[in-house]
Input
Amino acid sequence: MADPPPAPGDVLLYEFMVPAALSTSALALALRVPVTRIEGILWQKRAMSPETAIRLARYFGTSAEYWMELEAAYALHAARDAAGPAIARDVQPWPGQNADAGPDRAPRNR
Output
């Protein structure tokens, strides 16, 4: 089993804030957001919003997609841990599923 993806708050703290010697208050001020928003992300009590991702991307010179992909990977892993076994038990695959398509292939728009 693969290691869980890092929490966005851990990445923010250890890869961006600590190397830049940025406090929570200083980052919140620079992003023009409440300190509680940054604290919530750092303490894994709040998900990364698209708006916060855009602000972080602008400030740190990354992309908003970078932050949102971190959030999506983290949230999906947590959901699989929490609900995956029950879903596997309760939901049967669609009988018309194309076995060659693989489990991660999204259906085409019609």
In short: Residues 18 and 51 are 22 Å apart (CA to CA).
